[in-house]
Write a structure and sequence with these properties.
With 167 residues, the chain is mainly beta. Helices cover 7% and strands 36% of the residues. The protein has one domain (3-153). The strands form 3 sheets. A 5-stranded antiparallel beta sheet has the order 8-7-6-9-10. It has a 3-stranded antiparallel beta sheet with strand order 4-3-5. The protein binds zinc ion.
Length: 167
C-alpha cells in the first residue's frame, strides 16, 4: 500500500480501494474523474459504492472538464492538523462542476470538495472566496508520487448570485 505525504501528513491509498485508486491514478495523468453510474448514466462526485438515484452499484470512471462554480464553502480558521496550521485560514470549497448541473432534478448537480488554492498552490485569500465564482481544477504534485486535485479561481465571469461572508 503506497503511503504518501501531503503537507507533512502521511496519507495512504490502499491498492484494493478502487473507489480512490482510480481517482488518484487519473490525477497523476492530469485528469479529473468522477463516477458514472452504469445503470442510469448519471455522474456523481461523492464517495460511496451505490448510485444515489437508482439501485445500481455498477460504475466506471468518467473524465470531466474540471471547470465549475463554487456552490458553497467554509473557511477553516483554526486547525489541529499540524501540516495545515500555517495554512489557516483556508477555504474548503464545494464545487459544482459544469457537467450535469441541474440534473437529475433542479437543484441537483455534480459536486466535489477540494481546497481553493492560488497560482502558487497556497491557500487562496479568504476575501477572494465567494459562492458563484468560477473555478478550474489544478493538480498539486505533493511529496513522492502523490497528486491531489485542487481548484483555483479561473477569472471567468461569476455564475449566478455572488455571495461572500466577507463584506
Ligand atoms: Zn444510477
Amino acid at each position: 500500500m503506497p503511503v504518501y505525504e501531503h503537507r507533512g501528513q502521511q496519507m495512504s491509498v490502499p491498492d484494493q480501494d478502487l473507489e480512490y485508486t482510480g481517482y488518484f491514478d487519473a490525477a497523476k495523468e492530469g485528469r479529473l474523474v468522477v463516477k458514472k453510474c452504469q445503470g442510469c448514466g448519471l455522474l456523481r462526485g461523492e464517495p460511496g459504492p451505490a448510485c444515489p438515484w437508482c439501485p445500481s452499484q455498477e460504475w466506471e470512471w468518467q473524465d470531466v472538464s474540471g471547470k465549475g462554480t463554487i456552490y458553497s464553502y467554509q473557511i477553516v480558521a483554526h486547525t489541529v492538523i499540524p501540516g495545515f496550521k500555517d495554512w489557516a485560514p483556508f477555504a474548503i470549497v464545494l464545487v459544482e462542476l459544469d457537467e450535469q448541473s441541474g440534473k437529475p432534478e433542479p437543484g441537483d448537480g455534480l459536486r466535489i470538495t477540494a481546497n481553493l488554492v492560488d497560482s502558487n498552490m497556497d491557500a487562496e485569500k479568504e476575501e477572494n472566496v465567494a459562492i458563484g465564482k468560477r473555478v478550474e481544477v489544478v493538480f498539486h504534485k505533493s511529496e513522492g508520487d502523490f497528486v491531489l486535485p485542487q481548484f483555483k479561481l479561473s477569472g471567468e465571469a461569476p455564475q449566478g448570485p455572488v455571495w461572500s461572508h466577507v463584506t
